[in-house]
Amino acid sequence: MSILDILQQEDLRQQDTLSLIPSENYTSPAVRAALSSVFVNKYAEGYPGRRYYAGNAVADLLEVRVQELAREVFATDYHVNVQAHSGSPANLAVYHAFLKPGDTILSLRLDHGGHLSHGHSVTFVSSIYTIEFYEVDPETEQFNYAAIREKARQCQPKMIVCGGTAYPADINFAEFRSIADEVGAHFHADISHVAGLIAGGVYSSPFGLADTIMTTTHKTLRGPRGAMVFTKSELAKQLDKAVFPGLQGGPHLHTIAALGVALEEAAQPSFKEYAQAIVTNAKALAAALQERGIRLVSGGTESHLLLADLRPLGVAGAQAQELLESVGLITN
What we know:
The protein is an alpha/beta fold. The protein has helices at 3-16, 29-35, 57-73, 87-98, 124-128, 145-155, 173-183, 195-199, 236-247, 253-266, 269-291, 317-326, and strands spanning 18-19, 46-47, 50-51, 79-81, 104-108, 130-134, 159-162, 186-190, 212-216, 227-231, 295-296, 308-309, 329-330.
């Protein structure tokens, strides 16, 4: 079987199924075209105006323009690094830039909706830094900011990370800022799941509050698989140095080009309608499931995702995933 055969099989699979997994959003044909553009041939180690390879005048134009678009879409004056290859390395770059080995990170537990890259015990991050976790409230299944504040007081973290991979509710970023200020911690927001909703104005924003903000680009932002890291201007040099040469070599210019196209799309008025439709549809699905007796974690959703608790039905998550796939719905 040739690679072309496999590509065609995947094309058919995607046409015959509907993916409801946030990290499997569908890019536009224009984003896909940019991803396979001539920039795939170009190496551009360094930053605009400071490259270690020749022939990068056009690459510099590209990277600077994508940075401008990112600031426009998120209505911010933060510095933005668009070179990070994906979300986990981007988070690691933030830790590398602003922490020392052994420093304490306070983040959301994985089984309470957090992400591996926030310090789970199986990750490289946990071998470098001391990790403490906060949890969701057992009754509301949402953040209890008073409890998070008390946890921060107890462990005195150098960095507080908010955001997760399975948290349906809205996040009060101002509360996290207040907690970080009280204990003297760096405040890092991971908005990978909700970046498109923030850009569309239908979810709370950490811009102007967080010291650093990381987002992947392939979920609600509807771009290629990559990442961006925003930071306040006074921290820009530390961040950029941590990304390159700290953790990686040359940027993937074809991905940055595709990101630029996705950001151009996100800058259009229609993207706000798209973001609102995401939340509206998620709430409609949540209501329909609840009407049929499905219990939803945190009581519903204020974003693009929802968590169904199937334990009262005696159905395991993996079993439900397999059954749904058999009828063309891809979940996790």
